Amino acid sequence: MIRQLYDRDSYTYTYLLVCDKTGQAALIDPVKDNVTQYVQLLKELNLKLVYALDTHIHADHITALSVLRKATGCSTLVSSQGKVNCASGGLTNNACLTIGLLSLRAIYTPGHTDDSYSFYLQEGANGYLFTGDTLLIRGTGRTDFQNGSASDLYESLHNKLLQYPDNTIVYPAHDYNGFTQSTIFEEKYFNPRVKIKDKGAFIQFMAELNLPKPKHIEIAVPANQQCGELDV
Amino acid sequence: MIRQLYDRDSYTYTYLLVCDKTGQAALIDPVKDNVTQYVQLLKELNLKLVYALDTHIHADHITALSVLRKATGCSTLVSSQGKVNCASGGLTNNACLTIGLLSLRAIYTPGHTDDSYSFYLQEGANGYLFTGDTLLIRGTGRTDFQNGSASDLYESLHNKLLQYPDNTIVYPAHDYNGFTQSTIFEEKYFNPRVKIKDKGAFIQFMAELNLPKPKHIEIAVPANQQCGELDV
């Protein structure tokens, strides 16, 4: 079972993944402000949180990893590329995480940041990609901070995420336009950034975005480098 | 396939229901401001919209029913109890709507308003209840306007919606706390209003809420009584 949760302040989607047979669960991209909600929901559904995971060091909200580890005893995993040593362990490309009878695969997808991961879950005939800020619905994450690279993002999109079957459900870390999910098919054919097939043209497009600096980056990044432990 | 869409201004969830085999589709509680998004998504997914439905005359946003009927030729259905004559037809209790090979059942669930409906969809082993404002996640709609009735709401909840199997997915018309879906099990045991088992106590609880008037009610209700046709 997958339960999507929404943080209205940062437009962040958090995902609760549940093995229905064992009651083991994982949270992807939990937000510190919403820990009370997560803990209550875990209790109500009688779940044991085994993992709290971040797709990357976020710049727009503070992660709940550290608080969840203290509250539930779960393992926390963050990108091993992010040189962060506050978590239980580091994600590596193709690492397989066991949540009861579910297997969650970590996929290193740098570009938005140099520590970005996506996750893939297969449940019966259905495949789900949790794409973080690498692939958004009809968009992508930006590449102009935290060692972002439009060249890496192009490779992560075309050589990794878009190689999954067309009917794979896409669950991003954010949406700003009222979408909650998509599919690889839709993003392959209707995502304006994905449709830029020439790598040079994509790099130029990303370089010319000229986006304003994220509001909370100066607070969020140092806090998240400590798994949200830092009081702010 | 069910696709949840979100209107950030009014915290409204709109649902796109798709028969994957035929490409026929329905929209529940579409928002007028988002028509361009709906029409583009229908086109991208190569869907034929056969129905646009409202769970009730909304007080917080303007319905897209009339615009969608003009743009797509779909049928529009609203509660027959609402005495609204702008739609293609009126919903009646237990009416069965055909969307390709899917059957959507209309359930008259008055209480939030006297014209409130819910919808039930069975897809294989999975059941889905689209509960409008009758049953919200860990809450309910209010009952203090549009001929609302706490007594009727109590009956709609306990004698209709909560009679569905525990594993039925609950998809409400709104959420204000970051939830996107629930189950009948969760609402039966963890919804504070549902847990008030005594009908008199429930009526008293609802009477004492003293909520502020919805911001857009004076614009939205008359517009929605014309299926969103009225220019505002």
Comma- or semicolon-separated keywords:
about 30% strand, six-stranded mixed sheet, homodimer, about 230 residues, Metallo-beta-lactamase, Chain A
List the helices and strands and how they pair.
The structure is a homodimer of 232-residue chains.
Chain A lengths: L1 E6 L4 E7 L5 E5 L6 H10 L3 E6 L11 H8 L2 E5 L9 E3 L4 E4 L2 E7 L8 E7 L2 E7 L2 E2 L2 E2 L9 H11 L8 E4 L9 E2 H7 L8 H9 L9 H8 L8
Parallel strand pairs in A: 3-4, 4-5, 5-6, 10-13
Antiparallel strand pairs in A: 1-2, 2-3, 7-8, 8-9, 9-10, 11-12, 13-14
Can you tell me about this structure?
- Two copies of one chain form a homodimer.
- The first copy, chain A, has 232 residues and is an alpha/beta fold.
- Chain A has a single domain (2-212), classed as Metallo-beta-lactamase, Chain A.
- Helix content of chain A is 23%, strand content 29%.
- Chain A is built from six helices and 14 strands.
- Chain A has helices at residues 35-44, 65-72, 150-160, 184-190, 199-207, 217-224; strands at residues 2-7, 12-18, 24-28, 48-53, 75-79, 89-91, 96-99, 102-108, 117-123, 126-132, 135-136, 139-140, 169-172, 182-183.
- A six-stranded mixed β-sheet of chain A has the order 1-2-3-4-5-6, covered by helices on one side.
- In chain A, a hairpin with a 2-residue loop joins strand 11 and strand 12 (139-140).
- The longest helix of chain A has 11 residues, at 150-160.
- Chain A is globular and about 50 Å long.
- The A-B interface holds A 3-8, 34, 37, 44-45, 175, 177-181, 186, 189-190 and B 3-8, 34, 37, 44-45, 175, 177-181, 186, 189-190.
